[in-house]
Design goal:
- The chain is of the alpha+beta class.
- It contains 13 helices and 18 strands.
- A hairpin with a 4-residue loop joins β17 and β18.
Amino acid sequence: MLITRRMVFSSTLMLGALMVFASLIIYLHHRPLPAEVQSLTSAQFTAGTIDRKVRLPHDWVAQALPLKTGSYQLDFFLPSLPAEGWGVYLPALDLNAVVFLNGRRIGDGGRLAPPMARNHNRPLLFALPTDLLRPGDNRITIEIHSELRGRGLLGPVHLGAMTALAPHYRARYTLKITAMRIVTVATLAISALMLLMWWLRREEPMYLWFAVTAGFWLIYILNYHVIDIPLPTLAWVALVRFAALGWFVLSIVFFINRFLGLKQPRYEKALAVIYTALPLFMLTLEPAQMLAFGLRVYTPLVWLLGLDPAIKMTRAVWGRRDQEIIWLTFSGLAILSLGVHDILMNLGLIGREHGYFIPYAPPLTVIVFAVMLVRRFVNTLRASERLNRELERRVEQKVEEVRSAYDKLTAVEREQALNRERERIMRDMHDGVGGHLVSTLYMLQRGHTAPDEVREALQVALADLRLMIDSMDSAAEDLSAVLANLRSRLEPQLEKAGIRSRWQLGDLPSLADFGPEAALQIMRIVQEAITNIIKHAQASEMALSSAVAGGAVEITIRDNGVGLDAAATGPGHRGLTNMRQRAGRIGAILEVETAAPGTRVRLRWIPPPGDRV
């Protein structure tokens, strides 16, 4: 990837912001006090058999003093009583303090019994009662209490008007306590946001690991702003101060692996086991041993682990030159640089009076990570929206293609249906009207044909033509309507022949697949059966009924005539043969039997599966 001007500008801006941020942290920790404030840097220190002059800041760790309690006497001179209220300001101490003025107790930093109030990161300001001050020599006595042996510390002590001390105290309190609490709330909100983003995109676990990383950081910085702890001191130190820091850096390793797309399952499992077992091991040690192990072994191992993501990010920057990776590298440098200060402090190479700097590094890094992940999430959503729009466009295009193909197919099917209908009509005309007309023409060509015979032949042809026309009617799908229409045509012929007719047409369902072909064949079968009754049966009555029985449509025609040989197939019985052939064309069954008296013709037609009745 080429380095663009935008990348150079944003990276320079990011580096400048980090430098300003680090400079601001250092300045706020070394902010000078007003000139009118007295700074007491010399004190008489007493503890057991120890009684000597010391310089402030006085660090028990650096002096290798295995103490839990020590007392500092600081003398100051007042030429006269001050006109306004004075106070004593302790910007740095470890772990708690009780303050006396001229032998009278004026305040403390909280609970002294275990677990002791933790003021290692909190400045203290006490008002000096005016009635205890006196012109001339005065003495302030400060008792330092440390729950863990040898961890006591007292920084410079400042005296002056409360109006001069209070602004500096509030600024340091904001820097040490309030800022940590704001960071806690902000990190909690970012962690919740990352969890929500992971819930929405669970196929990307880096959001989950970022939330886990932020969660461990939340636990770790509790050590810097919680005064009254809910756990025994040893458990708090082992789990919150040391273990949470290790798990925080470990989760960074997991996050970076997923951010860069690296898969190292065995390596990650081994790290998880090591950095979980070590804090549990610390819980088994004596307090002094646990603290020494945590500071001199576990914490350096944690920072050594921190080199893992730093190296991976550096290699990624060198290989990819990606803007986001450059940002992450710079923010990682912020953690590393401030972490070096804390490591040197733990090793006793620099003083502890300014406290730890590492709590100030991750907030900026968390913001960088959060901005990057939100940016990725938004870009993913935008890409998804673009993809959806593209898919919608393609779907519309395909729908239009399918619609066009369907219209073409429908047109082809319509044309094929028209061709089939034309062929059927031509076949029906050839078999029906055409046959009758050819027969009539042959009769005329033969000569000696009576006019009545010609008239009857033409009437038969005309009746067949009417049947064809009726079969193409829009009501042809309704078998009941077909039979009713046929009744209106045949009933006058029955009356003319002196035959009484009964039509019992049941309620037959409308059948979608009952088209002109089936309608014509059924009408011809019924017409042929009734024509046989009129011409040959010598009957006086005819009954036609229609009903549904056993999933089939049944049409029954019965007369009381002389009967008919249903098995006969000779020349005189071509009508029965034609009826059976017509029934076979539509898949129907024709039954003809003697009914004593007369004949019964039954047509059974089973509709296709889609039209079962």
